[in-house]
Design goal:
With about 110 residues, this protein is α+β, with helices and mostly antiparallel strands. It is about 25% helix and about 20% strand. Strands 1-2-3-5-4 form a five-stranded antiparallel sheet, with helices on one face. A hairpin with a 7-residue loop joins strand 2 and strand 3. The longest helix has 16 residues. The N and C termini lie far apart (about 30 Å). It binds adenosine monophosphate and zinc ion. Adenosine monophosphate binds next to loops.
């Protein structure tokens, strides 16, 4: 499959990994929008949050628990944010479900 994040999972494209378990991988965003900008993705390819269903949505729990653990490891004690973009209007450029973990500064309060 021609998916850049699947290639990161397989190791065909390098990444700066910060967290990994059986189901989830997290690595630094190549174009950081904050001092800490991590992408958290399922190892199983899912196009986006619009493709979640009863049969695959358990991964969201694993991803959020990973987010909490990563935030702790980067000492984001003052707070952090998790965002997932969906489709064109959401600004999704990579069609492999991913959650942005942002922190390390006072984040913009304007969400949209
Ligand atoms: P989105 O716009 O929500 O689809 O987010 C895609 C994100 O993937 C962007 O923030 C990009 O900077 C990031 N990105 C694209 N290619 C890579 C890569 N090879 N390694 C790390 N991050 C990447
Ligand atoms: Zn993929």
């Amino acid at each position: 499959m021609d998916c850049i994040f699947c290639k990161i999972i397989s190791g065909d494209i390098p990444s700066e990994k910060v967290f990994e378990n059986e189901k989830v991988l997290a690595f630094k965003d190549i174009n950081p929008m904050a001092p800490v900008h991590i992408l958290i993705i399922p190892k199983e390819h899912i196009d986006g949050a619009d493709m979640l269903s009863d049969s695959n949505a358990d991964i969201v729990k694993d991803i959020m628990l990973a987010a909490k653990q990563i935030a702790q490891s980067f000492n984001l004690d003052n707070g952090w944010r998790v965002v997932t973009n969906v489709g064109n209007d959401g600004g999704q450029t990579v069609r492999h479900l991913h959650f942005h973990l942002l922190g390390g500064k006072k984040l913009n309060t304007e969400l949209a």
